[in-house]
Amino acid sequence: MSKSIFITNGQHAFNQLIATRMLSIGHRVVMHIEDSEEGMSYTRSLESEAAQRLHIVNGMPSEETEYAAMMEEAISVLGGLDVMIHGNEMLDEEKLFEDMPDVLGERIPAIFERIFLWNKSAVSHMIKRKSGKIVFPIIYDTLYYDQYPSSPIINHGKISMMKCLSRECSAFRIDVNVMTFGYHDADFEKSEKKERQRKLEIYGLKPVMKPMSEMLAMLDFIIDAPNSLIGGQNFEIGIGVETNL
């Protein structure tokens, strides 16, 4: 069944992959991309049938009213809102800490304020219908140290935020979850991929490293699940993610 989906941080390739996955299986998508040229570039990369089910909202909102106005535009285009996907910020925390530590100290709270305001705009609509899904897709923390674009500080904050939001939203049948993606093939050269697989053999004999475009299919599990059955969970997908007992 086609669902109406809003995705943030569409300027990042990871979040565009998510949008492409959602469009490929028939969903309707509104994505926020700050720069209009970048939005048009992504739209042109899609097949015409998929592009017809995509709407881009541009700009850099700063006030709560601006977030709410963009969300109202999205809901008007989509005819409702079933799913809110908080796209990953892909922040290089170590580089920012080394180069501009003061900026890092300002950037992290600003990111969570932005998440809160997007979330508030979406939830105010979902509460009226007593139905909705909120998803935080992230890349596993420790992959950062193996040159994957992961943000440990933001990841831990999002997991904590998800737990709090889940408790608050469950009464309104709104499910809030995180999906954490482990090691994957980020278009590595054959030799580099083989070396990474060798290091990962502790997780399985000759482990398979899937491309992220295939791993994102697991988001369907959360999006298609009946409301009020899955909430407050961190789903870990792929090899190399530690098991929490």
Task: Describe this protein's structure.
By secondary structure, the chain is α/β, with parallel strands linked by helices. It has ten helices and seven strands. The chain has helices at residues 13-24, 36-44, 48-51, 64-78, 93-99, 101-129, 152-169, 190-199, 212-215, 219-224; strands at residues 4-7, 28-32, 54-57, 83-85, 132-139, 174-181, 234-237. Strands 3-2-1-4-5-6-7 form a seven-stranded parallel sheet, sandwiched between helices. Helix 4 packs across helix 6, helix 5 runs antiparallel to helix 6 and helix 6 packs parallel to helix 7 (152-169). The longest helix is centred in the middle third of the chain and has 29 residues, at 101-129. The protein is globular and about 50 Å long. The two termini are 35 Å apart. The mean pLDDT is 92.
Summarize the structure.
The chain contains ten helices and seven strands. It is an alpha/beta fold.
The separation of the N and C termini measures 35 Å
Estimate the mean pLDDT confidence: 92
Task: Tell me the Rg in angstroms.
Answer: 18 Å
Helix content estimate: 40-55%
> What is the 3D shape?
globular
Q: Helix/strand-derived class?
A: alpha/beta
Helical stretch tally: 10
Q: Would you identify the regions where 5 or more consecutive residues have pLDDT less than 50?
A: none
Strand arrangement, major sheet: 3-2-1-4-5-6-7
What's the SSE pattern? Answer: EHEHHEHEHHEHEHHHE
Give the beta-strand count. 7
Strand content: 5-15%
Sheet with the most strands? Answer: 7 strands, parallel
